[in-house]
Please model this.
Amino acid sequence: MSDSAPKRARDIARAALIREITGTARRHLAEEGATGLSLRAVSRELGMVSSAIYRYFPSRDALLTQLIVEAYDAVGSAAEQAEAEIDRTDLGGRFAAIAHGIRDWARTNPHEYALIYGSPVPGYAAPEDTIAPASRVTLLLLRLLADLEAADAPLAEPAPALSSALEAQLAALVADAGLTVSPARMATGIGVWTELYGMISFELFGQFQNVFDNADEIFAARVEAMAARMGV
Amino acid sequence: MSDSAPKRARDIARAALIREITGTARRHLAEEGATGLSLRAVSRELGMVSSAIYRYFPSRDALLTQLIVEAYDAVGSAAEQAEAEIDRTDLGGRFAAIAHGIRDWARTNPHEYALIYGSPVPGYAAPEDTIAPASRVTLLLLRLLADLEAADAPLAEPAPALSSALEAQLAALVADAGLTVSPARMATGIGVWTELYGMISFELFGQFQNVFDNADEIFAARVEAMAARMGV
DNA sequence: CGCTGTCAAGAGCAGTGCTCTCGTTTTTGT
DNA sequence: ACAAAAACGAGAGCACTGCTCTTGACAGCG
Model:
């Protein structure tokens, strides 16, 4: 968090102002969405002239990137907190906590969810800064898969025939995290990961309109099915 | 398609101009994305002044809605054509054709895919016009589920405990299409539907960055797993 | 022929991201 | 302690956006 003690008075003022900018920007984002986020509106609310903001963020995209990082952090933190309340030996409970934790966060912060998991903004290529915080949730799922692996939980899917290249790629992912998960379970985990977010995106982006008037129950049912698939 | 024969000469000119507008708008959309679509740029390219476009589309959102409808139509048509080439008794092949057909279309038209399956645009609530064309793909999947049901294909998932309200809602969906699918298979189908689009969205929206450098194989493997889940 | 509705064009409003310049203030180096 | 350097807020300005309103020209119909 605190990378270095700010000494000069101007530095602490600068840090505070940056926090104020991102704060009101996040509020504007939550209220009107990413396309409605305007540097001029933010600066106006902060009582400064629009050009002054460029001393703190070189462009609108830079501000957006900061908000993306914070959103990844928020959803990661929400999922972690939800999972932390569950007994670590209750693997099914842990998965359900993660899944519902992500969904609850997404439903309370739909615009921030759309910002990170929706269509990417204009000509914007996700910079490196966003990759690390994005992996926070996936790491949680990865650890769950590793625990299932350690418990020898039986997969409910037939093992797919994967090329050695893909198996190596999957192995590298778990090795990076210092874990061990079989390629077959990783493939299943990828499927669960995508179904989980597919479900939430469909719900938030309106694809369930005229299908479900309330996605609570179908979501819960699918979470159970996903858990069973992974071996719970 | 042709709702009524245009009689007056002015009407055919008007229809042709509307086609020209949507055509160049679609090109701009494909090249720069939804946020980069500008009425002024379209009108400029068509050699008319910006205000003239408002005679044909009352607002930018109206143009966007038209493009959304056409995009739903395009992906629906792509999926239908892919499926039509498969022997109708080859249920697994039909599902694979649909899945890969959607993905192929999405990869060739990423911005149009993002327009319909990504985060919804600003304050924009999907109008009724977009609901019918959106159901084209889901109807294809629904029919496949009904054929699996008729063949008594065994589900690879345990039947979930669903409330009678949810079962009724699922039953209404299939009844609307004049088909019969058990609630359990419907629940599985919902899961497959969401995983399929979750997979494509993750690939197109950059969530697979630093995970797979090529999603071809994992997608194919997951499609097989999804088919098996539904009873293939 | 004349009336009515449609049309393109232009000007204009309010808003946007972003750049540049100009004094002022704060920090830094000597 | 004093001067040079860096950072800062303010303002004007550019090019762009969606959208509205008015004006004058044209086509189709009675």
User: Anything to note?
Assistant: Residues 60-84 of chain A form the longest helix (25 residues).
